[in-house]
From TrEMBL, chain A:
The lineage of its organism: Bacteria, Bacillati, Actinomycetota, Actinomycetes, Micrococcales. This is Energy-coupling factor transport system substrate-specific component. It holds the Pfam family ABC_cobalt. InterPro entries: ABC_thiamin-permease_prd.
From TrEMBL, chain C:
SUPFAM superfamilies: P-loop containing nucleoside triphosphate hydrolases (SSF52540). One of its GO terms (molecular function) is ATP hydrolysis activity. Belongs to the ABC transporter superfamily. One of its GO terms (cellular component) is ATP-binding cassette (ABC) transporter complex. PANTHER family: ENERGY-COUPLING FACTOR TRANSPORTER ATP-BINDING PROTEIN ECFA1 (PTHR43553:SF24), HEAVY METAL TRANSPORTER (PTHR43553). This is Energy-coupling factor ABC transporter ATP-binding protein. Keywords: ATP-binding, Nucleotide-binding, Transport. It comes from the Bacteria.
Length: 202, 268, 492
């Protein structure tokens, strides 16, 4: 038995039950946010959306934070993919407006963020990695939606759309998720996770 | 409150008198929507999208969805379709005669064709995706994903258990709103309070999640033993039928486009 | 796998056992030497922070691995380490809502069996048998969300029972229940023990509930090891005072009640023909109609009734947070502040007041303190209300300092509100409301799930508030609270 305190980040990559359940819970809470945002947002901005040359993708980060946030909290391989995918499935079950198609979106967007965490070997969870993961998700989202919903768009629209997705992913999914995890750690809610153990408490 | 009631009803509908289609394994419904979408995504033309839409509308009466539920749930798709079409009308690839040009907007023969195709395509992909999911029960879906598709059961069941907390989260959200009024900060805009409330909701959610994880482990969840299933999830002839129907609609639509010379592959 | 009805009871052996949670320096439990024979029924007591829950979770094998913390010594259930004997020990926790796992009653009870690999044809008979044993007579496809708190706890018990455990572990299983729910759960446990002969370890502040069932009381010491161990009578006689001071409700040692100086003042709030319930005015589910009541200064009004009877809704309606379904809630000129001439324009209906106008008139304390927290430190939390009132900085500091001291929160002034202990969170949530000096204080289940010490503190704070001319309205099912404070009672 040692008496040293554990402030070293955990490198155990196997998922514990609490990792799975809390990742699921974050995904479920995110899906409630998706659901609410759908209702609140579309009602107001849908009529204008068609008139914006691609800038409508600026709110896209809202649909991308689930994956990045989940990964930053549980820090396990596949967490970004799992969080985004489950959030998508559940928003479809709750009655999301695009039904099963959002599941494919969740899969692709989750992969976009997951790849970034993989590149850093699931060891680096700093702000810039979070932002890169948000960008990864943003690219994935932008490309997928151009293919599925706007294949006839011209080059200018496509470019604006992709850039808007990237900016939104970086700020909302990347930066805000990182900020949220920092705040969560201070509330003690992440005590059972390496992400919540920056400081040792008595 | 109505949101909460609606939410929980969607998540776990009673199984009372099941119509035949309702009893079809959800993974088959999901597969059908996916196969159909995969076909339609490949091309952007009004023939394939229109053909698929006609076939889908013809199939609707057999899917056991009440008219009211159908319109309510698919309303967003009906709104999104023309709007997406309008976007393409204004920003679509231009060709042929240009009728109107203003800043980055260009309406042309080409963008009009693309706009019609796009609107039909949104309906053809969106409607079945929504309708097939109306009758899906979360527990059945999880059973199907774990038993039929052999996805890892720990993850499927973890998500299923977390899903049950949705009702509690909606209650939490209501309390958070009331509490802000009680604390004297409820006079500012609702939208401005959202980030703070989302954060508080996350704290409560993660706490609940940690407790739920302990409760699940206390019931032997996540152990080494091979798990058994109290409910059998089958993939029989009805399921194959539904999945094949989805694929068939997609293939017929593609064939129609190719035969009439309208096939327009999305890349290039 | 045990397939028969008779499962041998499992004993417990701890030798120098301890546990330290990963992010902490302090050991939650240390130097524990304990032997519980198969079939014994043990009530486990100790001050909050003595490690009762940690011990139960360790016995259930759910404390986790090296990511989660560090063990010392040895702990055995039925002769084996708990993690290797999953299913031998069954654990029921405090919070009914976080223990329901699946959407339907039958599926939820079957969950544990599935995890243990019980063959399907054997699961369903076990499920029916377990539901029968806990006296939960509902259909297997009944929605678990529709169950009451007491039913949910019996459902959790059934889920554990279907696994056929030899050791039953209960962690404050009745703390969050109304009195009827408490009795139902206790009786269900009694029936289960009679049928199975399993060993029982129960943690609970309310000793009287479990005394008829247990034959041994073990008291954990916060400093490690045991404080006392023996027959219920012997331990409660010897250690009664110490336990009572540590927050245990020991029969014969009631919590101290504050001296009162009752004097009722002017009327503040009048409710007439009031209906409350769920839904909107358009689509209403009225829980209670024709409520008439008057809230006067210097008076405590208790709204009582079982869980789900609409106590909270009535409280929130009176507090100006929810609109009445029918009838009126009317603020008197005294409450509106008309006699001082400052607020000539304020409506007589509290629901029409702005959030800021509510602050100095009606304060609401929620059942779950965490719903109310807005900031990152205790001090900032107390400043929120006074700032919203735009008080001068000096006045804000004075009020906050006074409250920090009076409610013993000065030591944690810089801490994050979410990290406080249960009792501290309670005190903080009351303090945030007191900071704006409202005339009426509405509290939702102010004593829910509390130990005797926190309970006594809460009662003392409220008594002081009322005696100074405030009015308290409390939605509660706690009889002791009603008897200690209430001047009037509205039963739903």
């Amino acid at each position: 038995m040692t008496s040293t305190t554990t402030s070293i980040p955990s490198r155990n990559l196997k998922w514990r039950v609490v990792d799975i359940v809390v990742a699921s819970v974050i995904a479920v809470a995110s899906s409630v946010v998706f659901f609410g945002w759908n209702i609140a947002h579309d009602a107001v901005t849908a009529p204008f959306k068609a008139l914006l040359p691609g800038l409508q993708a600026l709110d896209g980060g809202i649909w991308l934070f689930a994956g990045v946030l989940t990964a930053l909290v549980v820090r396990k391989p596949g967490a970004a993919l799992y969080g985004e995918l489950v959030a998508a499935v559940i928003s479809a079950l709750l009655g999301g407006q695009y039904g099963a198609t959002v599941i494919v979106s969740g899969l692709v967007q989750g992969l976009g963020a997951e790849v970034v965490f993989l590149v850093f070997f699931y060891l680096n969870w700093r702000l810039y990695v979070a932002i890169l993961a948000g960008i990864g998700a943003g690219i994935a989202k932008g490309v997928l939606e151009l293919i599925v919903w706007y294949p006839g768009a011209d080059a200018l629209f496509a470019t604006v759309y992709i850039v808007s997705s990237i900016v939104s992913g970086a700020v909302i999914a990347g930066f805000l998720s990182w900020l949220a995890v920092r705040g969560l750690a201070k509330t003690g809610a992440l005590d059972r996770f390496a992400s919540g153990r920056g400081t040792v408490r008595v | 409150m109505s949101v909460a009631a609606e939410g929980s009803r969607q998540v776990s509908p009673g199984k009372g008198a099941m119509r035949p289609f309702e009893a079809v394994n959800p993974v088959a419904k999901f597969g059908a929507a996916l196969l159909l979408a995969a076909c339609l995504v490949l091309t952007i033309d009004w023939v394939s999208a229109g053909t698929a839409l006609l076939l889908e509308l013809a199939a609707m009466p057999f899917l056991g969805v009440r008219a009211r539920a159908f319109w309510l749930r698919t309303l967003a798709v009906w709104i999104a379709a023309p709007l997406t079409g309008l976007t393409i009308l204004l920003y679509g690839q231009a060709s042929g005669t240009v009728y109107w040009e203003w800043l980055t907007i260009r309406v042309s023969d080409g963008s009009i064709d693309l706009a019609i195709a796009t609107a039909l395509r949104v309906l053809a992909i969106g409607l079945p995706a929504v309708v097939l999911f109306i009758t899906v029960d979360a527990t059945d879906l999880a059973d199907g994903l774990a038993q039929v598709w052999r996805l890892p059961s720990r993850f499927v069941l973890g998500a299923l258990a977390a899903l049950r907390l949705v009702g509690l989260f909606l209650d939490d959200w209501r309390y958070l709103e009331l509490a802000r009024r009680a604390r004297g900060v409820g006079d500012t805009g609702r939208i401005r309070r959202v980030p703070g409330q989302v954060f508080a909701l996350l704290v409560l959610a993660i706490r609940r999640g940690s407790r739920l994880a302990t409760a699940m482990e206390a019931r032997g969840f996540g152990g080494e033993t091979e798990r058994t299933w109290a409910r059998d999830s089958r993939f029989g002839w009805r399921e194959w039928l539904v999945a094949c129907a989805g694929l068939m609609v997609g293939m017929i639509s593609i064939a129609a486009a190719v035969l009439t010379g309208h096939w327009n592959f999305i890349v290039g | 796998m045990n397939s028969g009805q008779d499962v041998p009871a499992a004993g417990v052996v701890a030798r120098g056992w301890g546990w330290r949670h990963a992010p902490r320096k302090r050991w939650a439990v240390s130097d524990l030497d304990l032997r519980i024979e198969p079939g014994e029924r043990v009530l486990l007591l100790g001050a909050s922070g003595a490690g009762k829950s940690t011990l139960l979770q360790a016995l259930a094998g759910v404390l986790g691995g090296e990511d989660d913390g560090e063990p010392s010594g040895e702990l055995l259930v039925g002769g084996k380490p708990p993690a290797e004997s999953r299913g031998r020990a069954g654990l029921v926790l405090q919070d009914p809502d976080s223990q329901v796992i699946l959407a339907k009653v039958g599926d939820d009870v079957a969950f544990g069996c599935e995890n243990l690999g019980v063959p399907r044809q054997e699961i369903w008979p076990r499920v029916r048998e377990a539901l029968d044993a806990v006296g939960l007579d509902v259909a297997l496809d009944r929605s678990t969300a529709a169950l009451s708190g007491g039913q949910k706890q019996r459902l959790a018990l059934a889920g554990v029972l279907a696994m056929r455990p030899g050791l039953l572990l209960l962690d404050e299983p009745t703390a969050n229940l109304d009195p009827a729910g408490v009795v139902d759960v206790r009786d269900a446990v009694a029936r289960v023990l009679e049928r199975t002969g399993a060993t029982l370890v129960v943690v609970e502040h309310r000793v009287d509930v479990w005394l008829p069932l247990v034959d041994r009381v073990v008291v954990l010491s916060p400093g490690g090891g045991l404080l006392a161990d023996g027959s219920p009578h012997a331990v409660l006689t010897d250690q009664g005072r110490v336990l009572a001071e540590a927050g245990v409700w020991v029969p014969g040692f009631p919590p101290a009640l504050p001296a009162r100086h009752r004097a009722s003042g002017p009327d503040l709030l009048l409710a007439g023909d009031l209906s409350v319930g769920r839904g909107s005015r358009v689509e209403a589910l009225v829980v209670k109609a024709d409520i008439e009541l008057t809230v006067a200064a210097g008076m405590t009004t208790a709204i009582t009734g079982p869980n789900g009877s609409g106590k909270t809704t009535l409280g929130f309606t009176l507090a100006g947070l929810l609109p009445p379904l029918a009838g009126v809630v009317e603020a008197t000129p005294e409450l509106r502040g008309l006699q001082t001439g400052r607020h000539a324009g304020i409506s007589e209906h509290p629901i029409r007041w702005t959030s800021r106008q509510l602050l100095t008139r009606i304060g609401t304390v929620f059942q779950e303190p965490e719903h109310q927290f807005l900031t990152a430190t205790v001090r900032e939390e107390l400043e929120v209300g006074p700032r919203a009132l735009k008080l001068p900085a000096g006045e804000i500091d004075a009020r906050v300092d006074e409250l920090l001291q009076r409610l013993r929160l000065d030591a944690v002034a810089a801490a994050n509100p979410f990290t406080l202990s249960g009792g501290e969170k309670r005190r903080l949530s009351v303090a945030t409301v007191l900071a704006t000096r409202p005339r009426i204080l509405m509290l939702d289940e102010p004593t829910f799930g509390q130990d005797a010490r926190t309970w006594a503190e809460q009662v003392a704070i409220l008594a002081e508030f009322v005696d100074a001319g405030g009015a308290v309205v409390a939605a509660t099912h706690d009889r002791a609270f009603v008897e200690a404070l209430a001047d009037a009672e509205v039963g739903l």
